[in-house]
Amino acid sequence: MPIFEYHCDDCTAEFEVLQRASDTNTHPRCPKCGALNPTKRFSAFATAGTQKETLSDNAT
Ligand SMILES: [Zn+2]
């Protein structure tokens, strides 16, 4: 299950949220101040997969 990292513009809190692929349209609530519109930074899970695929293409 991918982990999404969010940054809250209201209180500058950073937090991670586990989300299913089908839940990407739902915005999590900041656990610190309760703001409903945090900024998604990146998914460590997806980034790792992309890098692996790139390496495989170069090797072939
Ligand atoms: Zn916040």
Overview of the molecule:
- The chain is an alpha+beta fold and 60 residues long.
- The protein has a single domain (3-59), classed as Single Sheet (Rubrerythrin, domain 2), CATH 2.20.28.
- 27% of the residues lie in helices and 25% in strands.
- It is built from one helix and three strands, in the order E-E-E-H.
- A three-stranded antiparallel sheet has the order 2-1-3.
- A hairpin with a 6-residue loop joins strand 1 (3-7) and strand 2.
- It starts with a strand and ends with a helix.
- The site of zinc ion has 8 residues, from loops.
Question: Key terms for this structure?
Answer:
1 helix; alpha+beta; 3 strands; 60 residues; binds zinc ion; Rubrerythrin, domain 2
Number of helices, counting only DSSP H or I runs of 4 residues or more: 1
Q: Give the averaged pLDDT, no decimals.
A: 77
SSE arrangement, N to C? EEEH
Question: Ligands in the structure?
Answer: zinc ion
Identify the CATH class.
Mainly Beta
